[in-house]
């Protein structure tokens, strides 16, 4: 099952912002499709981390054993789905990443650190932006 991460932001004086590198940590909360248990804390996955998938032959970005029903669930970041959020998207929800999920559903996202942005006029780029306590940013899973 595929779940898209959508974000919405008000970009002022920024041309675009995006995550960079395979080290970027996507902090998410997950719900077990088998028993409904939700992870109490945010867990993270990144493109750089790959594990053999518990079921099937492919690889995945995260394996998480449900604390309640003990089922082994997994999730994979679809690399090709990753894209930046631009000034044209400002104020609208846009899919910036798609997760391929087995047994879990992402229910929440925490943007945190490691974002980069490019200025609107100067073409200056800003590295390692912290969106942890940002008020111009919101997200959802569809
Ligand atoms: Zn469960």
TrEMBL record:
It comes from the Eukaryota. InterPro entries: CXXC_Zn-binding_euk. The keyword Transferase does not apply. GO terms for molecular function: zinc ion binding. Keywords: Metal-binding, Zinc. The keyword Oxidoreductase does not apply. Belongs to the UPF0587 family. This is CXXC motif containing zinc binding protein-like isoform X2. It comes from Biomphalaria glabrata. The gene is LOC106064999.
């Amino acid at each position: 099952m595929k779940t898209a991460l959508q974000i919405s932001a008000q970009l002022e004086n920024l041309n675009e912002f995006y995550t960079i590198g395979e080290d970027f940590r996507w902090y998410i909360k997950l719900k077990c499709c088998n028993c409904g248990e939700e992870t109490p804390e945010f867990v993270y996955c990144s493109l750089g981390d790959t594990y053999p998938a518990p079921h099937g032959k492919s690889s995945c970005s995260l394996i998480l054993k449900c604390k309640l029903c003990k089922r082994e669930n997994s999730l994979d970041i679809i690399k090709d789905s990753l894209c930046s959020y631009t000034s044209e998207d400002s104020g609208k929800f846009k899919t910036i990443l798609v997760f391929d999920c087995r047994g879990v559903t992402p229910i929440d996202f925490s943007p945190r650190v490691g974002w980069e942005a490019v200025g609107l006029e100067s073409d200056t780029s800003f590295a390692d932006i912290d969106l942890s306590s940002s008020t111009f940013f919101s997200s959802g899973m569809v």
